[in-house]
Automatic annotation (TrEMBL):
The keyword Iron-sulfur does not apply. Residues 113-206 form the Acyl-CoA oxidase/dehydrogenase middle domain. One of its GO terms (molecular function) is oxidoreductase activity, acting on the CH-CH group of donors. The lineage of its organism: Bacteria, Bacillati, Actinomycetota, Actinomycetes, Pseudonocardiales. InterPro entries: Acyl-CoA_Oxase/DH_mid-dom, Acyl-CoA_Oxase/DH_mid-dom_sf, AcylCo_DH-like_C, AcylCo_DH/oxidase_C, AcylCoA_DH/ox_N, AcylCoA_DH/ox_N_sf, AcylCoA_DH/oxidase_NM_dom_sf, Mycobact_Acyl-CoA_DH. Keywords: FAD, Flavoprotein, Oxidoreductase. Pfam families: Acyl-CoA_dh_1 (PF00441), Acyl-CoA_dh_M (PF02770), Acyl-CoA_dh_N (PF02771). It comes from Pseudonocardia endophytica. Residues 6-109 form the Acyl-CoA dehydrogenase/oxidase N-terminal domain. Residues 220-370 form the Acyl-CoA dehydrogenase/oxidase C-terminal domain. The keyword Secreted does not apply. It comes from the Bacteria. This is Acyl-CoA dehydrogenase.
Length: 388
C-alpha cells in the first residue's frame, strides 16, 4: 500500500504534466520532461534517498507503473541508465561514483549506454576482445563494440573490457565508466528493419579511463556484468507495454474497430488471449519489482519475464495479422495508425535478441531456475570428442 494520497497526488500531477509528443523525437524535450519528473519526486522511486532517489518501496513503484501506463512516457534515452547502469552503480559503485553519477542520471542530464556486445562476442559476452591496458594512473581501451543502444546521445558508458588476457576468460574482465566525449571514441549509427537507427557501432581507439573509474573490482568485471544483466532483464521484462505499441491488445482493439473486424469471433479470441498474456506478465513484473525493492533481486528468475516479454511480442504480431490481415504491414504513407502497426510488427523481433536471446534465457531458466544439468561448454565438447 502506498501512503495516504501518494497515488492520488501522482495521478493529479500526470494529468497536469502530460508528456509532450515531441519528447519522443527530440532528446532535449525528453530531458526537460525527465527534470520535471525528478523535481516532482517521481524519478528513482526505489533508489536510496542518500544517492538522489526517493527511498520509496515497491508499492509506489507499482502505482507509478500503473498510473503512467496510459501516458506515452518518453523514457527511451534514459532506459539504459535508469534500468541497468544506475542500479549497478547503487550495488557496486564507490560512494564517489554514486555521488557523481546517480543524480544527473535521474535528472536526465546525463545519458548512458552499455558497451558489452562485440562483433565476436554477443551471447558469449565473456569472450570479448576489447583490451584495457594500464597507462599511468588510468587505462587505455581499444576495441570495437556493436549494437550499442543510445550511444548516439550518451555522455557515459559502462564498458566491459579484458584486463588480464592470461587468465580464464571470465576472470580477466573489468567494467569501467567511460566518458563518451573524447577523441578515442567514434560512434556510427546502425539502421534496423524499422528504418530507424536505435543502436550503433562504437570504436574505441586508446580511449582514456581514469584509474578510479573501475566499476566494482579490477578483474571482477564478470560479477559486475552479471549484476547489470540481472537488472537489465527485469527492466526489459517491464518494457513490453511501451515497446509493443501498435501490437498490444489495447492498440489492436482500436485497429479491429477501424478494420470492422471487432465482431469476428476469431479476432475476439485472439485479443482476449493477448490481453490475458499481457496481464500475466504485468503481474509477474510487479512481483519482480517488489522483490527488487525489498532488497532481494530475483536473479535468474528475471529471465522468465524477459523471455515472456519476447514471446508476447510475437503473440502481438500474430494477433495483428488476424485483426488486420495484410493491412498489418501495408498502408498508405499518411496513415498514422497503419504506421504504428507496422512499427510494432517490425520492431518485435528485436525483443527476442536484445538483453540476451530467447535461447540464452531458456538456458538460464533451465540451469539456474529449474536446476537442470548445465549445457556442456564448447571446450568440454571438444575434450569429449578427442577422448573418443
Ligand atoms: C535492439 C537491440 C539492442 C541492443 N542493445 C545493446 C546494447 O545497448 N549494448 C550491448 O552491449 N548489446 C546490445 N545488443 C546486443 C545483444 O545483447 C546481442 O545481440 C545478443 O546478446 C546476441 O548476441 P549476438 O547478436 O552476437 O548473437 P550470437 O551470440 O552470435 O547468437 C546467434 C544465435 O545463436 C544462438 N546461441 C548462441 N549461443 C547459444 C547457446 N549457448 N545455446 C543456444 N543457442 C545459442 C543465439 O540464441 C542466436 O540465435 C542489442 C541487441 C538488439 C537486438
Amino acid at each position: 500500500m502506498t501512503d495516504d494520497g501518494w497515488r492520488e497526488r501522482l495521478r493529479a500531477w500526470l494529468t497536469e504534466n502530460e508528456p509532450p509528443a515531441e519528447a519522443h523525437t527530440d532528446v532535449a524535450a525528453a530531458r526537460d520532461y525527465q527534470v520535471r519528473l525528478y523535481e516532482a519526486g517521481y524519478a528513482g522511486l526505489t533508489w536510496p534517498a542518500e544517492w538522489g532517489g526517493q527511498g520509496l518501496g515497491a508499492a509506489e513503484s507499482v502505482a507509478f507503473a500503473e498510473e503512467s501506463a496510459s501516458y506515452d512516457m518518453p523514457g527511451r534515452p534514459f532506459l539504459i541508465g535508469m534500468g541497468m547502469v544506475g542500479p549497478t552503480i547503487v550495488d557496486l559503485g564507490s560512494d564517489e561514483q554514486r555521488r557523481r553519477y546517480l543524480t544527473p542520471l535521474l535528472r536526465g542530464e546525463e545519458i548512458w549506454c552499455q558497451l558489452f556486445s562485440e562483433p565476436g562476442a554477443g551471447s558469449d559476452v565473456a569472450g570479448l576482445s576489447t583490451r584495457a591496458v594500464r597507462d599511468g594512473d588510468g587505462w587505455r581501451l581499444t576495441g570495437q563494440k556493436v549494437w550499442t543502444s543510445n550511444a548516439q546521445w550518451a555522455d557515459h558508458a559502462a564498458v566491459l573490457a579484458r584486463t588480464s588476457p592470461d587468465k580464464p576468460k571470465h576472470a580477466g574482465l573489468t567494467m569501467f565508466v567511460l566518458d563518451m566525449d573524447q577523441p578515442g571514441v567514434t560512434v556510427r549509427p546502425l539502421v534496423d528493419m524499422t528504418g530507424n537507427a536505435p543502436f550503433n557501432e562504437v570504436f574505441l581507439d586508446d580511449a582514456w579511463v581514469p584509474g578510479d573509474e573501475v566499476l566494482g573490482e579490477v578483474d571482477g568485471g564478470w560479477h559486475a556484468a552479471r549484476t547489470m544483466l540481472g537488472h537489465e532483464r527485469v527492466s526489459i521484462s517491464g518494457l513490453r507495454q511501451r515497446r509493443g505499441r501498435g501490437v498490444t491488445s489495447a492498440a489492436l482493439t482500436e485497429t479491429a474497430r477501424r478494420y470492422g473486424t471487432a465482431d469476428d469471433p476469431a479476432v475476439r479470441d485472439e485479443l482476449a488471449a493477448l490481453y490475458a498474456s499481457e496481464r500475466a506478465l504485468e503481474l509477474y513484473n510487479v512481483l519482480l519489482n517488489q522483490e527488487t525493492a525489498a532488497g532481494s533481486p530475483p536473479g535468474a528468475r528475471g529471465s522468465v519475464g524477459k523471455l515472456a516479454g519476447a514471446l508476447l511480442a510475437y503473440r502481438g504480431v500474430h494477433a495483428a495479422g488476424v485483426v488486420a490481415g495484410a493491412g498489418a504491414l501495408v498502408h498508405e504513407e499518411d496513415d498514422v495508425d497503419g504506421g504504428g502497426l507496422e512499427l510494432g510488427m517490425t520492431s518485435a523481433p528485436a525483443s527476442s535478441i536484445a538483453g540476451g536471446t530467447n535461447e540464452i534465457q531458456r538456458n538460464i531458466i533451465a540451469e539456474r531456475v529449474l536446476g537442470l544439468p548445465r549445457e556442456p561448454t564448447v571446450e568440454a565438447r571438444r575434450a569429449a570428442r578427442s577422448d573418443r
